[in-house]
């Protein structure tokens, strides 16, 4: 009797468990499906009354987590806030801006999963990326450069074309591919984030750190023994990104960006964040009104 | 020449005075039985002789080495002084034959063929040649103890210490072990020191009997003298108690 | 699956590095862990103190910190690549846990085994090597098996210091293919290729020893 009851309980429990798993999988697939195909980003943000931006939290001057306020701060954060306000004005809805820190490696997946609505995270516009996300127009003309120790004697990326040199890059950036083009013999090591890449450079794990000049300027302001050399050897313009085939949202964003550049908001933010970067004339970054 | 000599030896476990002014001389070739009630310090005393217990004060000379001298290499003494334990302490991960051959190989670097020949001879002697390839777990207590004796003998020691070798055995196993010990006492010129409660064995084999209580040696006399006319009242009492069993 | 085809050589390279790091760290941590376990049960007070400090330090600091410390600080004095730093960090970290498993194994062996061996003329080291450790390892096998499986999974720490392992290559593939989900499923399967046979083998050893006993 006892045995039969036990067995019956086991069978029922297994059935319930199997049903739960099936139900969960069904729900998940429906949710993903809905998010993937049916949802219009603009419609979604209007309904939520909020644009959730994926931003950098480890990049000085662009997006850096302020440990006191637990809020990210930087040029991109301020620009995202201005963009949100401008889009709200254009669409006649109430919109607030929310921020989610993303890493270079995970940001596109987060966008695809609709954890975030848009990306403004030092992301270079590339043809490969353009196949899977929608980019806005360029909001920052970045380019790849090289950060080296001041007494290293390295003058440009071509000097690094030697197996004895290691170039440090960050996972998920285009720096590795681009560096290979100019210094095919150099070893390339990718690290998780800019902080550990900078620390690795200081520890001698590599002789140069390569990424966008915009980011290197932030690192150079904090590490006076290091400087940028050779100017930019690639063009790596930054664009904001939305999920693929989100024309209405991209259109609104481009219109908002144009307005901000024309009404002087953009230039004010450039001055606010880049006016005291050593070796950089911030006026070069201004857009002509 | 004395094989083992205690001079004013003191041993403490914290506050407990385990060995109290022990003075004792055992000559080479003697067979001595050490008796006394439990907790009297017999086991402690015998375990100091091969350095399993350290002494705090006094002098302890074994085979000419001073055990209290930190410069003395204890392994040199252990090479020449074997010990048989109450709980056998056979190597559980080795066969009977390996138990016997291990120390001669590692310590004496005895030739392998010679080592095996001696080990098999010893197994023959203790009546367990057919168990050579058994694991200790497959043996009875009495068989284990006979293997343990063979293991000690394989080192060809000058002295052999027995620490209550039959106390953990079922009564029907005791006889075989005592027979082996009796043969050793009769046929070899080793120095033997035996802690035991087997009075008939002591009477038959011992040259001398030492009686201990409360960490002191109370009586040290020839076997006949001890059993026929013990001088100490506590020894008398002990004997009457043991013989009633 | 097209992802697997396209990046197959990258995954294989990562798999090779993960396997190599795991094997080196497994052997290294077994040797180190056993050494420090013996120190902890030795009669030497200094040995016990050193053994204890070693185990407490490496067991109680996150593996990531140990590894980053090696890669970023120690490497200033002793040159080492990310692969070396990661493997050494993994070895040190795991050895502390192995020391605890082996120590527990040693303590479970009755004291008579050591006394018997010492009285028989063997030195402490001989007795440890021939009598105590073989028995202690048998006792410790289930717990050692767990440590080894953890070690393989923990080898993903190499990714944080550019150690070229599976996780590192996975990150790169995820970043350039933009298909994070599939990438991590693929490398997850690669990890299973190492850990499944390992845990099966440990189970097999366990049952074999149980039958013997």
UniProtKB/TrEMBL annotation, chain A:
Top-level taxon in the UniProt lineage: Bacteria
Keyword terms of this UniProt record: Signal, Transport
Keyword flag Ribosomal protein: no
Transferase listed as a keyword: no
Ionotropic glutamate receptor C-terminal domain sequence ranges: 50-276
Solute-binding protein family 3/N-terminal domain segment(s): 50-277
Family statement drawn from the similarity comment of this UniProt entry: Belongs to the bacterial solute-binding protein 3 family.
The protein, known as: Periplasmic component/domain (HisJ)
Species this protein is from: Fructobacillus cardui
Upper taxonomic lineage: Bacteria, Bacillati, Bacillota, Bacilli, Lactobacillales
Automatic annotation (TrEMBL), chain B:
Keyword ATP-binding in record: yes
PROSITE patterns: ABC_TRANSPORTER_1 (PS00211), ABC_TRANSPORTER_2 (PS50893)
Keywords linked to the UniProt accession: ATP-binding, Nucleotide-binding, Transport
Source domain of life: Bacteria
GO molecular function, one term: ABC-type amino acid transporter activity
Cross-referenced InterPro entries: AAA+_ATPase, ABC_ATPase_HisP-typ, ABC_transporter-like_ATP-bd, ABC_transporter-like_CS, MetN_ABC_transporter-like, P-loop_NTPase
Ranges of residues in domain ABC transporter: 4-239
PANTHER family with a match to the protein in the record: AMINO ACID IMPORT ATP-BINDING PROTEIN, PHOSPHONATES IMPORT ATP-BINDING PROTEIN PHNC
Similarity comment text for this entry: Belongs to the ABC transporter superfamily.
Name assigned to this protein: ATPase component (GlnQ)
TrEMBL record, chain C:
Organism in which the protein naturally occurs: Fructobacillus cardui
Amino-acid biosynthesis found in the keyword field: no
Domain ABC transmembrane type-1, residue spans: 15-202
PROSITE patterns in alphabetical order: ABC_TM1
UniProt entry tagged with the keyword Protease: no
SUPFAM superfamilies: MetI-like
Subcellular location: Cell membrane
Transmembrane segments: 20-41, 53-74, 80-99, 157-175, 181-202
Membrane topology, from the record: Multi-pass membrane protein
Family the UniProt entry places it in: Belongs to the binding-protein-dependent transport system permease family.
Official protein name in the record: Permease component (HisM)
Lineage of the organism: Bacteria, Bacillati, Bacillota, Bacilli, Lactobacillales
Keywords: Cell membrane, Membrane, Transmembrane, Transmembrane helix, Transport
Superkingdom of the source species: Bacteria
